[in-house]
Specification:
The protein is of the alpha/beta class. Helix content is 54%, strand content 17%. Strands 16, 17, 18, 19, 20, 21, 22, 23 and 24 form a 9-stranded mixed β-sheet that branches. It has a 5-stranded mixed β-sheet with strand order 10-11-9-14-15, with helices on both faces.
């Protein structure tokens, strides 16, 4: 997409701005450079002048020192010009003395002998009018003269990098270290410093270009380079920044078009227009996207709280229903997501049409779950309308519906009233499904059918659900020649009677939905505090099991198993839970929960260890039965773990019996068979508990070769001849399989006398479960 002219103007303004800043920086830098150059040049000039004055002072001191040197005086006194050899030796001695003082320019120090009219220097004697002369007498016959040429002094100076030219003015003459001096340019665009030397008629002149200071030129170059880099970086950064802003505006164009904007292209200066367009149209679109389901157009989970509160604000009792599509995952797997989406759209449409005119709301809460909110008075009004319509149906239709109603009643005649209600709700009951379909097919029935339906459903909400909601799904949905029957798990809760807020409402409905699935219902399941209380108790038990200390709260009880002579021959270990927070928790309230959370594994091992520890204190051999969970026996390391526990207490394996239920055998897993065989080979026996209550099969007894068969108390309680005949038959089969029989739940003397011939006896008749110490005393 092409950039707009307004966007190019922004870039041009940015370039001009950066250029202006760079120019001002350069001007300021030049001014600072000149000022600093002048200041530093003055410092350098003062330093060189000070060094020159120190040099002159050194020369004077050197001359004075030579004049006072005794070796020089003695050499001059011993000087004999007629003796050339001695003359040369003495002259060399004086020269060595002069050299020993310091490095001096040639012929800068001369020693005079007035008596002999002789001068002695390092390289000979020479005179120059342009000299600085300092004379120091040597007693009465000689003198030391310091002759320094201004040019030599100029050469002694060590100029700095910033100094262009140096001059010495002496006796009106200018002496320079350079040639071809252009005195007209000496003071042009230069900084000139003039210094007079102390105790002399000589001045030193320093000249430096203001804009050619080497060190500051380097700094300026570096600053210029850094400025260029920073400027480039700023330009690039600004360009990139505005580029993204421009790109953002361009990318917003399709959104704005979708929101209803007529303009196709937006530039940087259109941001205000974009903001206004978004402020005008976006909230509604965002609300649609956030609070409404994209597929069905229904309010979604986020919108539920708002809708719920709006119903609460009406101050009228209302009902919330949760509908879960049965087998929807299977539908998706079989027919694909496209068909699944069409089904969801169709369901949303049908439910919405069912609530039309009632003020009710439909929400797609999650995946295949829909929530319905409707006021109770609207439920009553809709049912009343249906009744009135039914009364206006022609006579021949009334006759047909009456006949169908009689057929329905005939189907239900063998059942009691409560059983009839249950039958029509159970999906896996053939007659229930048949009646359910018949009821739905006559949604426009007469008052007779309405009365029958009310009687079957037991409440108006159930009737409303059947006649107004399920009636929409009597016929299968058709998609690409595929007929798909829609069935729901449905629950309902009255508000505000049964719930305080929407969070509690959802929790309670999900609990009831779980119960509905458990019961395989196809009707509407109303909220039940009893069901919810069971769920809450399970949750408390689950939470407590996570942190409970078995040794602190769990206790092992033992119930004796006796023979016909009332002798204790075995015992069964039974775990009891006494929780400080929950109180006494019966086994049937926590065992199955522990199996769900798999805490039963740790608890099971604790029970085995606790029993082994107790048995180890006995002086007699006694077999104790321990109940084993299917979850635990299917653990790979179950056998070695059990052996390790028993071995640690030196327990004989024959003193242990593991009681299992038919549910374990139904698993038919190799690991179960292997674990049972391994433990049996070690001497541990197995008992099949609660025989006769489930899918009892003697094939299990044959396949697994179990040692003990425990007959459930349900056969003992009735004490009828038929029950005793069954017990007798089971006993004979068990004996033929070399199995020992134990009868559970014997509570009376009559039961004991009748049943003792069949096997060992366990029950309250002899003793209730008791603590270990009490059990030992009983032994």
């Amino acid at each position: 997409m092409k950039a707009k002219l307004s966007d190019l103007k922004v870039v041009l303004v940015a370039i001009i701005f950066v250029g202006t800043v760079f120019g001002l920086a350069q001007f300021t830098l030049t001014d600072i450079n000149n000022a600093n150059s002048t200041f530093i040049n003055s410092l350098q000039a003062q330093n060189m002048v000070s060094n020159l004055e120190n040099t002159l002072e050194l020369l004077r001191n050197t001359g004075e020192s030579i004049a006072n040197d005794r070796s020089v005086v003695e050499s001059l006194l011993a000087l004999d010009p007629s003796d050339l050899d001695s003359f040369e030796i003495i002259c060399d001695t004086i020269r060595d003395v002069i050299r020993n003082f310091t490095y001096l320019p040639a012929n800068s120090i001369v020693v005079y002998d007035f008596n002999n009219n002789i001068s002695i220097s390092i390289d000979g004697y020479a005179s120059d009018v342009d000299v600085l002369s300092y004379t120091y007498p040597i007693e009465d016959f000689g003198a030391v003269v310091v002759n320094v040429s201004p040019y030599d002094l100029l050469l002694q100076l060590q100029p700095y990098d910033m100094t262009d030219d140096m001059f010495i003015e002496y006796n009106g003459k200018i002496i320079s270290n350079t040639h071809n001096i252009d005195f007209e340019e000496l003071f042009t665009n230069k900084h000139v410093s003039i210094y007079d030397l102390q105790d002399s008629n000589m001045s030193i002149i320093f000249s430096m270009e203001l804009d050619s200071s080497p060190s500051f030129n380097n700094i300026a170059d570096r600053i210029a380079i850094v400025s260029i880099i920073l400027t480039s970086f700023i330009i690039i950064a600004i360009t990139i920044f505005f580029r993204h802003v421009i790109i953002a505006t361009y990318r917003l164009s399709p959104l704005l078009t979708e929101l209803g904007a007529t303009k196709k292209c937006y530039g940087l200066f259109d941001l205000n227009k974009i903001a206004k367009a978004l402020a005008r149209t976006l909230p509604q679109k965002v609300k649609q996207l956030i609070y409404y389901d994209e597929l069905t157009g229904l309010p979604n989970r986020r919108m539920f709280k708002s809708i719920y509160n709006s119903f609460v604000d009406r101050h009228s009792p209302f009902t919330v229903m949760l509908l879960d599509i049965k087998g929807f995952k299977t539908i998706n797997d079989l027919w694909g997501d496209l068909v699944g989406d069409k089904i969801l759209i169709s369901i949303a449409t049908q439910i919405s049409s069912a609530l039309e005119g009632t003020g009710g709301e439909v929400i797609r809460y999650f995946g295949d779950e829909f929530i319905i909110l409707i006021e109770n008075r609207e439920v009553n009004r809709r049912l009343k309308t249906l009744q009135e319509e039914a009364l206006s149906v022609p006579t021949n239709v009334n006759l047909q519906t009456r006949e169908l109603s009689q057929q329905i009643k005939q189907h239900l005649r063998p059942y009691k009233l409560e059983e009839q209600k249950r039958v029509i709700k159970l999906q896996n009951t053939i007659i229930g499904r048949h009646i359910h379909q018949e009821l739905l097919m006559i949604k426009q029935i007469s008052q007779t059918t309405v009365d029958a339906t009310s009687e079957l459903m037991g409440n108006k909400l159930g009737e409303f659900y059947e006649r107004c909601i399920l009636s929409k799904f009597i016929n299968p949905l058709q998609f690409n020649d595929k007929a798909i029957q829609i069935i729901f798990n449905a629950v309902a809760i009255a508000t505000p009677e049964e719930t305080a807020n929407e969070e509690e409402l959802i929790t309670k409905m999900l609990v009831m939905l779980h119960k509905s699935k458990e019961l395989c219902m196809c009707g509407l399941l109303l909220f039940s505090n009893d069901v919810y209380s069971v769920y809450m108790n399970e949750e408390r038990v689950k939470e407590k099991l996570k942190t409970v200390s078995f040794s602190d709260e769990f206790i092992m009880y033992y119930q004796p198993i006796i023979n016909a002579n009332h002798s204790i021959v075995k015992a069964e270990a039974l775990v009891r839970w006494f929780s400080p927070e929950l109180g006494f928790v019966p086994p049937n309230k926590f065992i199955y929960v522990a199996e769900q959370t798999r805490d039963i594994i740790d608890l099971g091992y604790w029970i085995i260890e606790r029993v082994a520890k107790d048995i180890s204190t006995l002086n007699i051999s006694l077999q104790v039965s321990i109940n084993i969970s299917p979850i635990q026996i299917m653990e790979i390391d179950f056998v070695p773990s059990v052996m390790a526990i028993l071995d640690s207490y030196n327990i004989s394996y024959q003193n242990i019996c593991f009681e299992i239920t038919e549910g374990i055998l139904l698993e038919e897993r190799t690991i179960v068979k292997d674990n049972i065989r391994l433990l049996q080979n070690c001497g541990i026996q197995f008992a099949l508990d609660d025989f006769g209550t489930g899918y009892s099969s003697f094939s299990y007894l044959k396949d697994y070769s179990l040692e003990i068969l425990k007959i459930d108390k349900m056969f003992v309680d009735n004490t009828t001849a038929k029950d005793y005949a069954i017990i007798s038959g089971i006993t004979k089969i068990a004996q033929s399989l070399n199995m020992e029989v134990i009868l559970e739940g014997v509570e009376t003397a009559q039961q004991f006398e009748t049943l003792k011939k069949f096997g060992l006896i366990q029950g309250y008749y002899f003793a209730k479960p008791m603590g270990w110490e009490e059990f030992k005393q009983l032994l």
